[in-house]
Amino acid sequence: MTTPAPHRGGFVFLDPEQGRVLRVVPFQYNPDQLTRTLRPQSIADGSGDRLEALRLYGPPRETYHVTAEFDAADQWASTAGPEPPADTGLFGALSALESAVCPTSAQLTTQHELAARGMLEVAPVQGPMPVLVLGPRRVLPVRITDVTVTEEAYDGRLNPVRARVALTVRVLTVDDVGFAHKAGGLYLRYQQGRERFAALVGYGPGAVGYSQL
Questions:
Q1: CA–CA separation, 211 and 120 (whole Å)
Q2: Buried-exposed string 19-37: b where 16+ CB fall within 10 A, e elsewhere
Q3: The dihedral of CA 36, 145, 20, 90: what is its sign?
Q4: Whole-number Cα distances in Å, 122 to 24, 112, 210
Q5: 162-207 pLDDT, tens per residue?
Q6: In this predicted model, what pLDDT tens digit does every residue of 114-135 receive, in sequence order?
Q7: Are 139 and 131 a contacting pair, CB within 8 Å?
Q8: First CA to last CA across the chain, in angstroms?
Q9: CA-CA-CA-CA torsion for 193, 194, 199, 202, nearest 10 degrees?
């Protein structure tokens, strides 16, 4: 009997306009743990308005904290595709993640040229849309809010060969992008999945120990 290969988490970066895949950056190792924070959008504490106490104004602000580990010694052992030059260490993997929060050099040059022509307002550049994949049941459109890289070992040319990348992301909801956007559709599927799983542990009013509520 063949054991199925484990799912690998990671990021998929999409074109924000067309939704096509621009780049896939898998985690070398799935994280040992992650931290999630859900902050409800409800009436502020202490408002005194009893009619608003249980009202929810939209999806919660959901934040994920994930740490990805990378090791150049075996980073390509189970990955299909061409192997990078041996003297680059982890620069490829690290740069792929860091580039998600950096305007490209072409975008910066274009902005500079527009400003030099006297444009009164230069629109901020738009980066790729990150999708955090944590197995088939959690495919999350996100905005990366923080990237912390800890380089732990180097080769003789000071290329990093072992590193940890701590990432903080906020889940994008229909409040952020609308229902027609690709990210809005991904969020709705994620929320629908959460509702289906919540229904699996629902109990009726006659459940033992709760009948007096």
A1: 67
A2: eeeeeebbbbebeeeeeee
A3: negative
A4: 30, 9, 60
A5: 999 999 999 999 999 999 999 999 999 999 999 999 998 866 665 6
A6: 888 877 566 788 889 999 999 9
A7: yes
A8: 50
A9: 170
